[in-house]
Amino acid sequence: MITRKSKREIEKMKAAGDLLVQCHKEIAKRIKPGITTMELDSFTERFLADHGATPEQKGYSGYPYAICSSINDEICHGFPREETLQDGDIVTIDMVVNLDGGLADSAWTYRVGTVDDAGERLLNVSKTSLYKGIEQAQPGNRIGDIGHAIQTYAEGEGFSVVRDFTGHGIGPTIHEEPHIPHFGLPNKGPRLKEGMVVTIEPMINEGTWQSQMDSNNWTARTTDNGRSAQYEHTVVITKDGPMLTTDQDK
């Protein structure tokens, strides 16, 4: 069932989003060659605890960490590890923050040191894809309008859009209806209504969109070793247009 959030629920989700943004900005300062994603996971645990919040995905369906950290050809749900990040890597940090029952979900792909031109283009197109989708998150539009905008832009730039993982409704649990595919046809799917809260989180690949699962049954990676990038916001559907609870630029 698709639910619409009350003003009180949305205020709590906005507060969680503000804290998530603070955490992402601190992580961004720490990402450099030589650091490990396990260190970033430990930092996130401490940061959230110090601010009265918890990492909502830790323990969700048995997931053991505070963050997902997906490097290079890993699409999503990468486990933090002890190996150091190397110059030229890209790493996606994805997290869900619970602050007083309000949830916020955001992923961001970061450069480690200096990334090659092809990697820079992947990141730029991936981020633009997110905002192309957000532009369509208007009351009266349909979910297919979001995915169509993302797919047509990303594929027009020569990249592919992952099909196996989607955005979703959020609050009071991590994954709620509706699913938000990042591909599809316009004017298809459920209609967006004021008060809905969803995540838009396109995963964009250099090569094929197909994924394969690691032996940990969590981490998905590309089948052709191409790199993957992802940017994600939590979005409230309002009469005045999409409102981002996880906006890093406001």
UniProtKB/TrEMBL annotation:
Binds 2 divalent metal cations per subunit. Has a high-affinity and a low affinity metal-binding site. The true nature of the physiological cofactor is under debate. The enzyme is active with cobalt, zinc, manganese or divalent iron ions. Most likely, methionine aminopeptidases function as mononuclear Fe(2+)-metalloproteases under physiological conditions, and the catalytically relevant metal-binding site has been assigned to the histidine-containing high-affinity site. Residues 11-239 form the Peptidase M24 domain. Its EC number is 3.4.11.18. PROSITE patterns: MAP_1. A divalent metal cation 2 binds at D105, H168, E201, E232. It comes from the Bacteria. Substrate binds at H77, H175. InterPro entries: Creatinase/aminopeptidase-like, Pept_M24, Pept_M24_MAP, Pept_M24A_MAP1. Removes the N-terminal methionine from nascent proteins. The N-terminal methionine is often cleaved when the second residue in the primary sequence is small and uncharged (Met-Ala-, Cys, Gly, Pro, Ser, Thr, or Val). Requires deformylation of the N(alpha)-formylated initiator methionine before it can be hydrolyzed. Belongs to the peptidase M24A family. Methionine aminopeptidase type 1 subfamily. This is Methionine aminopeptidase. It comes from Lentibacillus halophilus.
